[in-house]
Design brief:
The protein has a domain at 22-52. Helices cover 88% and strands 0% of the residues. The chain has helices at residues 2-17, 22-51.
Length: 52
Amino acid sequence: MEKVQHITRAAIRRASTMEVPQQAKQNMQELFINFCLILICLLLIYIIVLLM
């Protein structure tokens, strides 16, 4: 168990020191925004259908 915790901590430390490229961050933000917009559109369509 002790060894597993040590390996996990080492992996987390390595992941936190890893540098994420700016382009990757921007892509993730754009994906998230697109996802939110699609959700909002679907919700609006659902509401319009309910009101009909």
